[in-house]
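Internal ticket - ligand job 275, manganese (II) ion:
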Amino acid sequence: MPVSTIVATSSSDLKSAYDKDGHCSLPYRFTDGSVELLRRRVAAISAQTRPEVVHEKDSGVVRAIHGCHEFDDVCRALVSHPVLVELARTLIGGPVYVYQFKVNLKQAREGAAWPWHQDFAFWSQEDGMPRPDAVNIAVPLDDVHEDNGPLLVIPGSHDLGLFDLPVRSERTSDWRQHVSDDLAYTVSAERAERMIEERGKALILGGAGSLHAFHPSIVHSSSNNRSADRRALLLITYNAVDNAPADPTRPPFLVGRDTTPVVARGDERLVVEPA
Ligand code: SIN
Ligand code: MN
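stdout (structure tokens):
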């Protein structure tokens, strides 16, 4: 069955799961060759000295790279991949553009945690995104298992609004505190525990190349990577075109300025197959 048919037939189930739980995993994946190509590009970018490359505070290893679709042709092709664009359009319900592109590398033994937080807290408070009408599409570039710091989400928490926002006068405007383990906008551990008692929690596990989506308001975290296996997670955030912030000030590699709708375009180097 062609992938476009799989996407079309699964899209209403995906949308129901996404609307109810705030996350879903997809029945298809990028091929090993596609993942290998992306890994090579990530390695090359990680070796560069540029503001888009962020390091762990303690160990100095690369924590994340940002905005790669603006300067790397494989990453540029990826954001236009028909499967990703169709999925984002289905989950958001209209034309989309690329708000953010990043790869969180979570290096073996060194990769640090992401405390409980909601992405929309950053995007609304720092950038002025009007509504959480965006979606994160996650593609692990390594196998993700319980011990290499998988994403942990609280199902259904995307529907409850934003929690624990700091008062305006105590906010930091340093974007580095939006990409470090010392996050500027967190949900308290006590609140997360109470929510988990009520709603449970879900680990986002999957092989390299698998595809997952999660909502900007879902409460999520991930732990330190204490294993011998790296856990690189590529994340593309698509935003509804009519939900673009009016006047963002954070760097363009954190907040995409080009709000032109993404046109789906296949690339023979990036191939999706049934999972
Ligand atoms: C992670 O890479 O584990 C965290 C990703 C996120 O918070 O969006
Ligand atoms: Mn997040």
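Auto-summary: The pocket of manganese (II) ion (ligand 2) is lined by residues 117, 119, 220 (CB under 6 Å). The two ends are 12 Å apart (CA to CA).
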